Structures are given as structure tokens and as C-alpha cells.
Backbone:
């Protein structure tokens, strides 16, 4: 019978424990010092997550976004003077020269007098999109050690999962999804910039080349979050489905304790994901907030003043694109948290404690305590919790700032009208005095 992990047979929990003991014996015998950790050969053999997501890691290396590398079997490292890091410095320096040229050109366009309001809005938006490139070393590279730690946690977890359950983790179709997202990330960035090239008169074709890698980086970060949350959600569902089989085994307390240990590791991995990429995703959320506010304000005011045109369609496209990225990230974080927390808790609360022994009841209570004390929350290192509440709070902030900007705009218009009336009145008075004289 085929199970959820892709194996053709399903092992009973007792068989899983025995198989895990065999793996542990093989691991300890193959290493010279037990304190050195698991055998790298075993870590590499059961690291299916790395194999299925390798394309995205290589793409990040080529783009110079995150210069981590696979330094050995089952080990991911980050070094400031590695060949991958030196390549990232070189590609970043070359891109910085070109992006600076584009930034200066776009800034000169904004400073030109006599431009329409929507042209100023476009200029501000496309200047803000260039900023993440200059923040890349601070936001990404400084967290390289934490990213490598997160990758190694994934590697060790998969071997531990096999030792406990006797079934290797196999992410079906995740490799195809990763390859597709790599292509889509670049394709979407190119399409958006080419659309802006045709919608804006002052957007030159060579300007668009300064944005392709930045938009691709933003899309790849969204893809990275989606893949990690999807993988964690699948593992959580597999573990949750195996709880009943564990309770029906001959030694349910021992197996349930092993599953609790696995759950705690998976929860820590979720927290490490937010910590490792906190700089990038914090910048991500701020950029989305700023761009969406400016684009929405510009489109609304221009529609009120000039009516609907293709340029306003471009602003709507930018706002929709930003909110789509935010929705994907928050929604995937919400689903991963729900599968790890409430669904697990509900499954444990539905256990018939009267049908199990005292040790098993204690393990169930300890499992529930572990869930309460280690909540599986996708958190950006304390900056924000990534869930659906972040979407609602962002939309609320956008609406608030739009109202404030519209009120400010109305105030300026009223002041301008009053100044014009006063000027007309002064002219009338002065002309009347001239006639009398």
C-alpha cells in the first residue's frame, strides 16, 4: 500500500523504531567520534529537501543574493571569503554600477519642472524599487550564517524523521514546482517592466535592465517562502496522520515521545526560517507597503483629475503585484502555522485517554504542553508575525495613509483656491483705486 511519503509499503510504528535503531547504530559506527554528529553520508542520502530545491539555491548563488554553498555532504556553510561569496561581490559591484546609472536618470526625470502628477508618482515608485539592491549586503549577506544554520536544520531533521518513522521524507512534485517558480520569477519581472516601458513615455528600454534582477529577487524570495512553508506543512500533516498509528502500537508512549521531539524540531525550524531571512522579508514588507500606498494614491488622484488612462492601469498593476506577493507570503505562513499548531492540538485533544495507559496519557499532556510553550509562529525575528493578520493590518495602514494623503491634498487645493480668490480680490481693489484716482 502506498503511503503519503511515496513509499510502497507502510511500516508499523514498532518496525519504525527498530529501523531507526538500526540507522542510529550505523551512524554511530561510521563516525570516529560520536560527538561529531550523524554520518554525512546518511545526512546527504536522506536530504530530499535539498535535492528538490537545489535549483532555487543555485539561482540565488548566480544572482549573488545569498552566497551560501554546499561545502560537503550534508553540510551547508557560509563564509565571507568563499568562492561563492567573492563571485557575489563581483556580480553585485557590476550590477551596482548599472543600477546607479539608472537611479540617477530616474532622479533627473523627477526633478524636471513641468511634469504631471502621475509622472512624479511613477518616478517615486521606480526609485523605491531600486533601493533593495543597495540594501542587499546588509539585509541578506549579514544573515548568511543563520541561513546556513536553517539549511542544516532541515538536513538533520530529515534523517531524524527517518530514524523515528522508518520512512524517508520524499517531497513529490516539489522539484518541478521549484523549477517552475525559478522561471516564473524572472518571467514576471520581465513582463512587468516591459509593460511599464510601453505605458510610460519616460521609461527607456535600457532603464528596464536595471530592474529585472531586483524584481526577480523579490519573486524568488516569495517562491522560497512558499516552498519552505509547503514542505513544513506536508511534514506536519504526515506526522499528524501517523499519531493514531503510534497510539495503536505496542509501545505508544515511547513512539509518541519521539514524535514530540520531531514536532519541537520542526517548530524551531519555522522560527529559524523567519530569523534567517528577517532582514530580507522585513525590507520586503516595507517596500510593498510604500509602493502600494504611492501607487494607489497616484492612481486615485489621477482618475479624479484626468480620468482613466493606460498610465493609471500601470499604477494599478504595480499595486496589485505588490499585494499579491504579500498575500502569498502571509497565506502560506498562516497555513503552515495552522497545520503545525491547531490541527496537531485538535488531534491530540481527540485522543481517548481512557483507552491508553498512564505513560501514554503523560506523553499526550507533555505533547500539548510542548505545543503551548513552542508555538509554531512564522516570525521575522520579532519584527512581525507572518500570517493573515499581517494582510489585514497592512490593508488598514494603506487605507489610513490614503485618507490622510487625500485630506492633505484637499487642504492644499482649498488653500490654493483661497489664494487665487484673494489675488483676484486684490487685483479688483487695485484697479478700482486706479479708476477713482
Residues:
Amino acid at each position: 500500500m502506498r503511503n503519503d511519503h511515496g513509499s510502497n509499503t507502510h511500516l508499523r510504528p514498532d518496525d519504525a523504531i527498530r529501523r531507526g535503531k538500526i540507522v542510529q547504530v550505523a551512524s554511530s559506527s561510521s563516525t570516529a567520534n560520536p560527538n561529531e554528529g550523524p554520518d554525512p553520508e546518511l545526512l546527504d542520502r536522506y536530504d530530499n529537501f535539498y535535492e528538490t530545491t537545489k535549483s532555487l539555491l543555485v539561482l540565488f548563488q548566480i544572482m549573488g543574493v545569498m552566497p551560501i554553498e554546499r561545502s560537503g555532504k550534508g553540510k551547508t556553510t557560509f563564509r565571507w571569503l568563499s568562492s561563492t561569496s567573492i563571485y557575489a561581490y563581483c556580480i553585485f559591484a557590476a550590477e551596482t554600477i548599472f543600477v546607479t546609472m539608472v537611479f540617477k536618470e530616474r532622479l533627473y526625470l523627477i526633478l524636471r519642472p513641468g511634469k504631471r502628477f502621475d509622472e512624479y508618482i511613477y518616478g517615486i515608485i521606480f526609485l523605491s524599487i531600486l533601493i533593495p539592491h543597495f540594501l542587499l549586503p546588509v539585509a541578506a549577506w549579514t544573515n548568511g550564517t543563520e541561513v546556513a544554520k536553517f539549511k542544516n536544520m532541515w538536513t538533520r531533521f530529515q534523517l531524524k524523521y527517518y530514524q523515528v518513522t522508518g520512512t524517508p521524507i520524499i517531497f513529490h512534485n516539489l522539484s518541478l514546482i521549484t523549477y517552475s517558480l525559478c522561471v516564473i520569477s524572472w518571467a514576471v519581472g520581465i513582463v512587468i517592466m516591459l509593460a511599464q516601458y510601453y505605458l510610460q513615455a519616460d521609461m527607456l528600454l535600457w532603464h528596464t535592465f536595471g530592474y529585472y534582477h531586483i524584481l526577480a529577487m523579490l519573486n524568488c524570495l516569495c517562491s522560497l517562502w512558499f516552498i519552505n512553508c509547503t514542505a513544513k506543512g506536508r511534514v506536519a500533516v504526515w506526522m499528524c496522520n501517523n499519531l493514531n498509528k503510534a497510539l495503536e502500537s505496542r509501545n505508544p508512549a515511547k513512539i509518541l515521545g519521539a514524535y514530540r521531539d520531531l514536532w519541537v524540531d520542526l517548530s524551531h525550524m519555522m522560527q529559524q526560517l523567519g530569523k534567517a531571512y528577517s532582514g530580507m522579508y522585513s525590507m520586503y514588507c516595507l517596500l510593498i507597503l510604500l509602493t502600494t500606498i504611492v501607487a494607489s494614491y497616484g492612481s486615485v488622484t489621477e482618475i479624479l483629475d484626468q480620468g482613466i488612462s493606460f498610465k493609471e492601469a500601470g499604477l494599478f498593476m504595480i499595486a496589485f503585484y505588490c499585494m499579491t506577493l504579500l498575500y502569498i507570503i502571509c497565506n502560506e505562513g498562516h497555513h503552515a502555522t495552522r497545520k503545525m499548531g491547531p490541527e496537531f492540538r485538535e488531534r491530540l485533544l481527540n485522543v481517548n485517554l481512557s483507552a491508553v495507559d498512564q505513560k501514554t496519557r503523560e506523553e499526550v499532556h507533555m505533547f500539548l504542553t510542548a505545543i503551548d510553550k513552542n508555538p509554531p509562529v512564522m516570525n521575522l525575528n520579532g519584527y512581525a508575525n507572518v500570517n493573515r493578520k499581517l494582510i489585514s493590518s497592512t490593508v488598514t495602514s494603506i487605507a489610513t495613509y490614503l485618507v490622510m494623503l487625500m485630506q492633505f491634498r484637499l487642504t492644499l487645493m482649498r488653500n490654493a483656491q483661497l489664494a487665487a480668490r484673494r489675488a483676484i480680490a486684490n487685483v479688483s481693489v487695485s484697479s478700482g483705486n486706479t479708476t477713482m484716482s
Notes: The chain has 16 helices and two strands.
